Amino acid sequence: xxxxxxxxxxxxxxxxxxxxxxxxxxxxxxxxxxxxxxxxxxxxxxxxxxxxxxxxxxxxxxxxxxxxxxxxxxxxxxxxxxxxxxxxxxxxxxxxxxxxxxxxxxxxxxxxxxxxxxxxxxxxxxxxxxxxxxxxxxxxxxxxxxxxxxxxxxxxxxxxxxxxxxxxxxxxxxxxxxxxxxxxxxxxxxxxxxxxxxxxxxxxxxxxx
Length: 209
Ligand code: URA
Hints:
binds uracil, Uracil phosphoribosyltransferase, GTP-binding, about 30% strand, GTP binding, three-stranded parallel beta sheet, seven-stranded mixed beta sheet, alpha/beta, globular, magnesium ion binding
């Protein structure tokens, strides 16, 4: 089974608590998600390989570390994934972005595919799939399957909140994909919402209902 990392940094936990509050404004929710995405991206990229290169500072030559090896792709599960990707691109501006369009059928809770666009060289890249909520796990499982079908071999999954049911379902389907999350909540309710959760991440991010 793949590793699940709960990123329990105090700044992340504090910002997540603010995001959960139901009176939080759309603008504030969006800003907090962007801030948290930087901190989560820091953790999910912690083990990226570096190589020493020769440079010259204004004072002296030196050998200094630079990122080496695989290039990154951030794969956003539309639409709420975009709220995480925007901040992550601040941190890694050279990353490519894939978009996976899935919506959840509210009755079956199954994902329905409607869009897919990814860089052609997925096989050579580290693909970090992002969606704020890992609830039933159905969308995440399907998005990663689509990306693997398109060539992705080295994949990680990053979310803000997870339900135990979603973590288990995802690990069963993709045992090779490590999961990073800020918290694992209690459970799912009958409508497939995470409890206590924060509601519908897409609606809260974009002010829709
Ligand atoms: N998607 C959301 O946005 N929120 C949930 O609680 C579950 C799925």
